[in-house]
Write a structure and sequence with these properties.
This protein is an alpha+beta fold and 188 residues long. The protein has helices spanning 10-18, 64-71, 143-153, 157-164, 177-180; strands at residues 3-5, 22-26, 36-40, 45-49, 52-58, 74-80, 88-98, 113-127.
Length: 188
């Protein structure tokens, strides 16, 4: 049932764009380090070419993916069909983090934007997804914009990033203070 593809073709592109949620997985080189999986939503993914994608990384409770990419570059993006025919698509590759001021103008101005992650794909595959439940999309959550606005009123998102996003939970360097402390609440 599983199939690999040489590139993102028109069918895969349609499937990827139809998904309202995707997951990003990464891991440090150390066997003692923590593997990370993060959900991503909103209008935060772009297909840049047949073997290249990018997503807008928003401020969160940590910066695991950024730290792992800085250390080793390994990343996988997974898309699951929660509506329609069952299917899972995985995009494996090497990612890089594009800092503020160097980011392409690809995304809407989302609150909390802190970086763009570009991924050069080395494996594109799909599988059945028979175990993925059927679920209905209701709406994007409004909390991100409200959370960022609250952080801006109480010391700034840059201070939050410095305190919570400068290193991974395993101590790997993530966001560089000088590049992110002066960022406004949203920048792409």
């Amino acid at each position: 049932m599983a199939k690999t593809y040489p590139e993102i073709d028109a069918d895969l592109e349609r499937f990827i764009h139809a998904q309202r949620l995707f997951f990003v997985g990464s891991a440090p080189l150390s066997a003692e380090g923590h593997v990370n999986v993060s959900p991503k939503g909103l209008d935060a993914l772009r297909i840049l070419g047949p073997r290249r994608v990018a997503y807008l990384d928003l401020t969160g409770s940590g910066a695991e993916t950024i730290a792992h990419l800085r250390e080793n570059g390994r990343i996988v993006l997974m898309f699951c069909a929660f509506q329609g025919p069952p299917r899972i698509v995985r995009l494996h590759g090497r990612g890089s983090v594009i800092p503020p001021g160097e980011q392409p103008d690809l995304f809407p101005d989302l609150p909390g934007a802190r970086a763009v992650v570009e991924v050069e794909l080395d494996r594109i595959s799909d599988s059945c997804g028979y175990g993925v439940p059927l679920m209905e999309f209701v709406a994007d959550r409004p909390q991100m914009a409200a959370w960022v606005a609250k952080k801006e009123r109480s010391g700034g998102i840059g201070q939050y990033r410095d305190e919570n996003n400068s290193h991974s939970i395993d101590g790997l360097p993530a966001l560089e203070e000088s590049a992110y402390l002066s960022l406004p609440s949203s920048s792409t």
